[in-house]
Design brief:
homodimer, six-stranded antiparallel beta sheet, 11 helices, 31% strand
Chain lengths: 732, 732
């Protein structure tokens, strides 16, 4: 806690070369991005509307020189001036009165400069930001990021425009500190086997070791003093444990460090033990000779309790990370919490999130699978690349390890697949494993996802073989579905905010529909993410935008509903379902996300929220569309992920076809133990001939309506041409 | 190079407690083992005959106190006395004139003591060795080793008696050194991408840094001076590369370190680059969604060239590692080399081999897959266990990394299988990965074997479903067969050296047949390793020991022949075939080994030698035994693992049935490129009715008899009872 934090007034200007002085400076917002400053000064339209973002792309290859004129507040002999900066994106040089005082590559390592005897009021403090790093000889795209530690998503993705932020993206300020102040506080603890005791040790480094008395206080979650100590080792008996959402309270203690009796640092501490364990039966595989290895563990065990991880893949909530604050994170994380999620995977294509993200996750009981910023590239740099990765990963680990919400470390996304080409031998991943071992060995580390047993994809409601999630996931036997997608269009009123009116309907290539990922987004499927031909397959042509969107959103909702519930039915072999993806960094026309930018739920959000209730009735249907007169069937389940039992009861299964109610069966289900499902009957009925387009399957639990579930299916009358089965160009 | 090395006269005696003085001392051989010293003094019979080893087992729980009376040679003021010891097995304490001067756990870390001002002639130097470490509460067996870094094989295995060595197992001597002497020399080098340049750096630590001029000389393999330098960085252009056997010459340079112009250290340096790479086509898997990871790479690439690894699993050549010397290693390694092997896996159940092993492998071009001493246990110790593992692994890595024969590091044996229960999360394996990264990052590291894609087993000629190697490996699709076994009995004259005459025939439980692993050895199959019921299945009862042994050895030979050749036919998906096992630590009655203790080839050795010729003709048959009148068939191949092409030619396929020659086909095979096989025709013929027990398939390459191959099959006349298909107790 510095005695004074003084913000600075910055300006910034572009130059061709590192040594140049900008011809023009524009006002700069810090934290922020040079592109936003420049656009503001030029009066450019919002980058997220239509295809205005293209104008920003030319800015990535300049050097940018920030400057501020120092005004140093007067200090006593027992006080010091510091310049403190949380992060600059990406490579930069700091100059004080024209002299280089710091150089760095890497956006995740903060830095500070003591100014006390070095600077005087009126001096220029400058930060020269280098152009966006690009691996030589690579075509425009994510591969350009493969020799740097910059998040590759900015280089363009199937749901993210190419727009590479640069600039001071974390707070930067002048601080007045006491001569003796804290330089570093690290809290470690170990819970004993039965969780009856936590042994804390606090590593403290002060600016003048030994010059002052350092003492410690630990406060209970309710604020009462729990422990007070002049030694850095504290033993807490009967700690209240931190539990993820749905399992118990996310209890947070507060640790205070005092210097000469004055509070100098406060941080939350949550006591929990997290492991990755093998699922029941896992050791029985593989069977027979020749025998390979058993699959790696992916079941999360928290405080000795195996949990089913329900959640989503978290991507950047903004294109420009300098725009992200606690106010960006909170509404999104509250939506994740309200969806009954207990795990977010912070995907390695994007940034490692800032402190407010973890603080809110700590508070809400959201576990965080934290990936280092590597994704879908072959990171095979050595020397300088590994040096920066070492620096950046150590900074990341030292910061994030303090949070109880941290569930596991992961080297990055899909690195062991063909499109990345990395292996267990890759030095970058061995270095990350090493650093995690050295700095945070009690937190699990996995090199990448998917590992053996785990799986990613599909990302369509209907694949090139006509398979739906009902068949794809119904036949899968994976230990974790750490990515799966069902695309859906954004809502009509939302589309109107960023797609020019004339382009709204019908959706066409070459319009904002394409720029905003509705068409031609994913190279494996030309119609992504709108997937109009899939919508037509089930419903025929749509006459209005409203009709098209409603149908697409129904597919997304029912697809996600099935996959989440099916993954849960596959417990305990499967222990994790994380859809791709939760949020988005700007408005998409269509996308696999559940929540539109900045924090507006799509209908699929509510379907997933229903599928993720800790306890619910659930139906396993073989497919989405039926012919009139065809036999319908569904297997009925009761799912319980909760840590408590579910009382026996009665469940009624019925169909609602055009308002006509058809009761199929009633299941007297037994009591369910904690975290255990029950598989009930398979119900069947011949569907009537009729003209309805959709019908509903209803599961109703007598006296417990919060466990009821409802599913929508399609009745097709055979008008759909069979040619619609294969992929074909849209708007051809 | 010390000025004087003076050996010491040791004696040793057992005590109950660490503080006790032995009531009796017996002469001790160093290096050696306390059990051998004690047995020698007591006049016990050889431990390797009959079941005499049992008498030795009681010695493992004593403390043993070694002592020697120092006689310090006179030295000048510029000279120093040192006591130098290469290793003590396992936990020990060193006392000088009654005072504790060193304590250590771990047999792979050498230690030395400067005596100059600490000791005088007449002082006792004592080494107190603690009892064999045993994890509490574990039953007798390998699990007792799971919290120590002692090789677990000594605790009993299916081919190794329980006999846990203790004592000074490496040389220990008094040295007179110059005041300024070398304490440590580490040579690192990096080859550039096209191998045209090697950049060496030599890290030298002297006893008095800066007190003397350190210079360097590098000599060509032929002894000519290549480079001379006063700086520790040397650049060698156009280095002659070190190649594994079959690929080129194992060129070894000599590096000399001089102190003030006087040679003080000499070591061999071989220049090569080894990587694990993905096999062709590997990135195409897995196909489809949901998609898991691609299998990890296991193809060895040496100096940019992918090679097929042919070899074997190396186990302890002696029960007592203190008995092992260069003279133990050399005949065995020369047999491995003569078998056309290029890779030995030094299995983690046993010791990490001593310097002479690696020196001879360097010389012969035998690559070494080096495992840390972990096997088939759950090594989940933390604190002290990890501290010793850290110390031991660092000692091992720093020593072995200097050898060009080192191909890869491996955490240990079968750790990711049910019987071990370790996972990628295990701290021990993460620590080993970390230490290998820090100290030897250019050498591949794998956590264990098998990994995904790789496989271990089977270890029988005929499994409980009646499947033979022909079907098991013909249907397998693994990337590496890093263990597979075919058991066979030892030769008759050899059996007679350690099985009492009265017990020789018929083999029975409760005799030396059982003690020496012929019966009841492997828990999965009661008849192992003699597998008499399998022999009977093909040949009916054997009337003599000679008949039994001959038949069993035929099965072993033909089984191994098939598997090695089949693995090679599966190239490039498969890139490795290492049978279990090469050698053995004492005489076995039956075992999967190729070479009997100490270095006596079994008939299977010659079959494997033939199957591992770099170029050979090869036949793929569907099974081992046929009925008279049945159709025989075989797919004909030409296999080429060599780095050169094989000229086109003609191959004749015939059967020899009781001396009658039946020509089946002739194949005009094309030119083969380097390291590429050719698949030829499938030949067929109806077998005649007859009384022969066996027949031969002959492949003969016109004008190139060294490529000819020959296979033996069995003609069965249906007399074998079908009950022989399932396992049943022997001698019941």
């Amino acid at each position: 806690m510095p005695k004074l934090v003084q913000s600075l007034l910055w300006e910034v200007g572009p130059v061709e070369n590192a040594e140049d002085t900008p011809g023009v400076f524009v006002p700069a917002e810090v934290p922020g991005a040079v592109q936003l400053d420049w656009a503001r000064a030029q009066g450019w339209p919002e980058y997220w509307v239509a295809d205005h973002f293209r104008a920003y792309q030319g800015l990535e290859d300049f050097h940018w020189r920030y400057r501020t004129r120092l005004e140093l507040p007067p200090v006593s002999g027992d006080e010091r001036h510091y310049f403190v900066c949380g992060g600059v994106d990406y490579r930069f040089r700091v100059l004080l009165a024209g002299n280089v005082v710091h150089e760095q590559e890497g956006m995740f390592t903060p830095f500070e400069l003591e100014l006390t005897l070095r600077a005087k009021s009126g001096d220029w403090l400058e930060i020269l930001v280098f152009p966006a790093p690009k691996a030589a000889l690579e075509p425009e795209g994510r591969a350009q990021a493969r020799l740097s530690n910059k998040p590759p998503v900015s280089y363009g993705w199937d749901w993210h425009p190419r727009l590479i932020p640069l600039g001071i993206w974390q707070p930067a300020a002048l601080e007045v500190r006491a001569r003796v102040h804290l330089r570093q506080v690290d809290v470690h603890y170990r819970l004993n086997e039965d969780f009856s005791e936590a042994r804390l040790s606090v590593d403290v480094v002060t600016s003048e070791p030994g010059a002052a008395a350092v003492t410690f206080r630990l406060f209970e979650p309710d604020g009462r003093l729990a422990l007070e100590s002049s030694a850095p080792d504290l033993v807490l008996t009967a700690p209240e444990l931190w539990w993820p959402a749905g399992e118990g309270r996310a209890a947070l203690y507060t640790l205070e460090v005092l210097i000469d009796g004055v509070p100098a640092h406060r941080q939350k501490v949550g006591f929990r033990r997290i492991r990755l364990i093998m699922h029941p039966g896992a050791w029985r595989e593989p069977a027979g000779f020749p025998k390979s290895r058993s699959e790696p563990p992916i079941t999360l065990e928290v405080n000795g309790r195996a949990i089913f991880a329900r959640g989503s893949n978290w991507v950047c909530p903004e294109i420009f990370p300098g725009l992200i604050s606690a106010e960006t994170y909170r509404p999104l994380l509250e939506l994740a919490h309200a969806a009954h999620f207990n795990l977010l995977r912070t995907w390695g294509g994007a940034i490692v999130n800032s402190e407010p993200f973890y603080e809110i996750c700590d508070e809400l009981g959201l576990l965080v699978w934290t990936e280092f910023p590597l994704a879908c590239n072959r990171y095979d740099g050595e020397g300088e690349y590994l040096r920066v990765l070492d620096q950046e990963s150590r900074s990341i680990i030292r910061r994030v390890r303090q949070h109880p919400s941290l569930a596991l470390w992961c080297g990055g996304n899909e690195l062991f697949n063909a499109w990345s080409g990395m292996t267990d031998q890759s030095l970058a991943l061995r270095l990350l494993n090493k650093n995690c071992y050295e700095l945070d060995r009690d937190t699990p580390f996995i090199a990448t996802a998917p590992l053996g047993g785990m799986a990613h994809g599909d990302y369509r409601f209907r694949d090139e073989h006509g398979r739906e999630p009902f068949q794809i996931f119904g036949a899968a036997h994976n230990t974790a579905y750490s990515e799966f997608g069902c695309p859906g269009p954004s809502s009509v009123d939302y589309l109107k905010t960023f797609i020019p009116e004339a382009e709204l309907f019908p959706p066409k290539l070459g319009t904002a529909w394409e720029t905003h990922h509705g068409l031609g987004a994913w190279e494996m499927e030309p119609g992504t993410w709108l997937c109009q031909q899939t919508i037509e397959h089930y419903f025929g042509p749509s006459r209005t935008l409203e009709e098209l969107v409603e149908r697409g959103q129904l597919l997304q909702s029912e697809g996600y509903r099935f996959i989440f519930e099916e993954a849960r039915r596959q417990k305990p072999v499967c222990s994790m379902a994380l859809n791709w993806c939760f949020n988005e960094p700007w408005p998409s026309a269509a996308n696999n996300n559940l929540v539109s930018w900045p924090h507006r739920p799509k209908p699929a959000y509510y379907a997933v929220q229903a599928a993720c209730r800790p306890v619910l009735s659930s139906a396993r249907a073989p497919k989405f569309s039926f012919q009139p007169g065809e036999s319908f069937e569904a297997e009925v389940w009761l799912l319980n992920d909760s840590p408590g039992p579910v009382a026996a009861g009665s469940l009624e299964v019925s169909l609602d076809i055009g308002g006509r109610r058809l009761v199929l069966a009633s299941w007297a289900f037994p009591e369910l133990l904690a975290n255990q499902n029950a598989r009930g009957p398979t119900v069947r009925c011949d569907l009537p001939n009729g003209v309805e387009r959709t019908f509903q399957l209803l599961l109703q639990v007598s006296g417990r309506p919060t466990l009821d579930s409802q599913y929508t299916f399609v009745l097709q009358n055979g008008r759909v041409p069979s040619a619609a089965l294969g992929p074909r160009p849209l708007n051809a």
